[in-house]
Amino acid sequence: HLSRLAEIKPDVGLMYEGSITDIKRLLEIFKPPYIVGVDLQESDFNLLSGLKKLELLAGSFADPVLTKPLPSLPRLKQLVLSDLDKNLELPGNFLVNNKQLERVIFQKPVQFDMSLLDPLKNIKELVIRESGEILNISLINGHKKLELLVLGDEKSDYDLNMIKLPHLMWMTFFNNTTQD
Question: How many Cβ atoms are within 10 Å of 27's Cβ, its own excluded?
């Protein structure tokens, strides 16, 4: 039945809560533009690299340490990574193969280094939620195309006066933000 459906509608998005390897067969018959909810491991990067029509990837990593960059996904525009408190840190070159990303969400990073975003020249939306320490925060000003910015949470304390982004249209403020 799924093979027949794939013939009619090969580009359906997939939502699956579990390991992406569990749906490997589905990824062979469908060409999804969206994959949401999957658990990823660095060993899944070969499988991901075959998803040439992928525009949105939303998932979390099961590996406590990643050493390789995300594989090249030429159509990927949105990346949502959740439960990053399970990982010590993403490698500095994690986004180097996907410079075309426009929307990036990082949920629960224990520590986030803004230099990770250096390869992204077209980023328009950045969300870093429930984060621990954010390193090199001044590097945010290098992303002049940013239109939406959400940093931290109610516990965060960042100097918002240092943010100078000409195209910023939306920014989230939390309870502890002062007007000083």
Answer: 19
